[in-house]
Amino acid sequence: MLVALYSGTGDEVLAKIAVALERALARRAVDGAPGRTEGRILARGDGWTVEDVICTSGPRDRPFGERHSKISIAIVAAGSFQYRAAASRELMTPGALLLGNAGQGFECGHEHGAGDRCLSFKYAPDYFESLAADAGGRGARAAFRAPRLPPLRDVSPLIARAFAGLCGAADVSWEELSVQLAVRTLRLAGGHPTSPGVAAPAAVARVTRIVRTIERHPDAGLTLGSLARAAGLSPYHFLRTFERLTGTTPHQYVLRSRLREAAIRLLTEPARILDIAFDCGFGDVSNFNRAFRAEFGVNPRAYRLQPGARPAPACSPL
């Protein structure tokens, strides 16, 4: 069950994820076409990619050999299949993590049921190595020793966030999530990077400078990578140091700064809600409404109409 951090319940989120797979399987049944895999890029950055992958293969489709082009961590979101890699055969089920090393051959088979949906995180080897090193890994190249991690409590919060983002039930920073998932998976799968120690004074000063920058320009295009570069830290060190010092991740901090600015403007300005959302850095009004309700308990229009607020303009609030 997904935690109640999102607008919908966990059951609703999981149902939405499964519906997309069911529709793809229904289209295949009508077309009579062979099973196939289709991917949709959700986000990408320097060294990482997140992709929504739906496979409609079934028992009558013959598995064929493939090769991981990058380091891969795929969260199984719906369905099940057999994953063959590194002389192992693993049953992949919802919540399990499919692990792959760059250049490694593999096969996926659906002998016992049709279709699956996965959320695939792919990392350039050099970028993944840097994450492992920054997290405290030493010695041999960062690589997965097993092809699968079963559903584990230690990774459940990250999976819940990923699923909520996949079905549009929450505003998720895929860049932050990709870093956190890589490091957590390495720990659980045998890479064993250790947590960094207490933040150095220089790092504290850099994060403080970034906090001031966010407060001055919350509507700017602020990403984990750009903030880390401005702080002179690696993405992993910046993320960990920022969260330790502020109690929240950079994405959450930026989001709350934008929401605070929007709330103030709703109470003090007659501008349309749509214009306020765009001015405060939200590219989509539905995401703004969802985030605002999660933060303040009411939608922007109801917030503006509360007692003591400046009267709304005569024109439409949207």
Task: Please write out the topology.
Blueprint: H1 10-31, E1 37-45, E2 48-55, E3 66-67, E4 71-79, E5 81-85, E6 88-92, E7 97-100, E8 105-109, E9 116-123, H2 125-134, E10 148-149, H3 156-166, H4 174-189, H5 201-216, H6 224-231, H7 235-246, H8 250-268, H9 273-279, H10 285-296, H11 300-304
Antiparallel strand pairs: 1-2, 2-9, 3-8, 4-7, 4-9, 5-6, 5-8, 7-10
Helix pairs in contact: 1-3, 3-4, 6-7, 8-10
Give your account of this protein's structure:
The chain is built from eleven helices and ten strands. It has 318 residues and is of the alpha+beta class. It folds into three domains: 10-189, Jelly Rolls (Sandwich); 201-247; 253-304, Arc Repressor Mutant, subunit A, CATH 1.10.10. The strands form two sheets. A six-stranded antiparallel sheet has the order 1-2-9-4-7-10. The two termini are 35 Å apart. Mean pLDDT is 83; it is low at 1-9, 191-196 and 314-318.
Biggest sheet, open or closed, and with what strands and sense?
6 strands, antiparallel
Distance between the termini: 35 Å
Q: What is the alpha-carbon Rg in Å?
A: 22 Å
Q: In terms of per-residue confidence, which ranges show pLDDT below 50 for 5 or more consecutive residues?
A: 1-9, 191-196, 314-318
The overall pLDDT, averaged over residues, is: 83
| CATH topology name of the largest domain | Jelly Rolls
> What is the CATH superfamily label of the largest domain?
Jelly Rolls
Estimate the strand proportion. Answer: 15-25%
Give the strand order of the largest sheet, numbering strands 1, 2, ... along the chain: 1-2-9-4-7-10
How many discrete structural domains?
Answer: 3
Second-tier CATH architecture of the largest domain:
Sandwich
Tally of helical segments: 11
Q: What is the global morphology?
A: globular
Helix content: 40-55%
